[in-house]
Amino acid sequence: MTVPESNESIRITGVCGSLSADGVTKKALTIALQGAAEYGADTSLLELHDFNLVFAGSVPQDEYPPDVLRLRQAIRESRGIILATPEYHGSLTGALKNMLDLMSIEDFETKIVGLVGIAGGHVGAINSLNTMKTICRNLHCWVLPQEVSIANSGNAFDENGAMKDPALEERLLNLGRQLVKFASMQQKVQQSEFAQLWKSLPTW
Predict the structure, then answer these.
(1) Please, what is the average pLDDT of the chain?
(2) Distance CA 66, CA 166 (A)
(3) What range does the domain containing 163 cover?
(4) What are the tens digits of pLDDT across the range 132-171?
(5) At 29, which CATH number?
(6) pTM to 2 decimals?
(7) 6 found inside a domain
(8) Is 37 a member of any domain?
(9) What residues contact residue 128 under an 8 Å CB cut-off, 6+ apart?
(10) Do 4 and 180 meet the contact criterion of CB atoms below 8 Å apart?
(11) Which of 114, 57, 108 has its CA nearest to residue 82?
């Protein structure tokens, strides 16, 4: 494994869309963040049950509780974000969707984002991943082409909490590593220049 130059100033934040204290989503997200940490990033994991949030639109923004502002600040200070969610009824959790609804474009704009979806069935979390990509596009962030979908989640980890499939574990680690790589490249260029360069590219 070739580790890039020091990425000590790169902060990667994982957001767990499950409210379960020790569910598969958190375990998978932890592995992805481990991959980012291997490349020298400063990593943190945010669990939504630790935040006192309101429903988006239920109160004016100037009446948001402090935890909403704390969450938005954590996102703003991160260079890369990993969004992880179990799939409920073909979509991401209400908790994660509400969290994203409480964010602004300014919070997420130009962030590099990696996606992880967890599903109990054999098909995987394709719908949740596609929905998150749509949301991220509207938040003006850059989504990694690589994503991780975990099917049959009830059988993904053994009784000791270790992932049973080494190839799937490696995909999660690589998601974190790739996030740091792209965030590192972006950091070497002023974000405004990066955005202007992107906008100048031809569209098809």
Answers:
(1) 91
(2) 41
(3) 11-200
(4) 999 999 999 999 999 999 999 999 999 988 999 999 999 9
(5) 3.40.50.360
(6) 0.89
(7) no
(8) yes
(9) 85, 86, 87, 90, 91, 92, 117, 119
(10) yes
(11) 114
- Strand, coil or helix: 39: coil
Going by C-alpha positions, the residue among 49, 62, 43 that lies closest to residue 96 is 49
d(CA 1, CA 3): 6
Rg (CA), the chain: 17
Residue 178 lies in a domain: yes
Buried b (16+ CB within 10 A) or exposed e, 60-90: eeeebeeebeebbebbeebbbbbbbbbbbee
Contact call for residues 154 and 20 (beta carbons, < 8 A): no
- Compute the 3-state secondary structure of the chain and give helix, strand, coil in percent, each to the nearest 5: 45, 15, 40
Instruction: Give the bridge partners for 13, in sequence order.
Output: 44, 81
Backbone angles phi, psi at 108, to 5 degrees: -105, -15
Query: Token pair of 152, please?
Result: 């049959």
As for how many domains the chain has, the answer is 1
Q: Is residue 19 part of a domain?
A: yes
C-alpha separations of 139 from 5, 79, 161 in Å: 29, 14, 34
The model's pLDDT over 95-146, given as tens digits with 9 standing for 90+, comes to 999 999 999 999 999 999 999 999 999 999 999 999 999 999 999 999 999 9
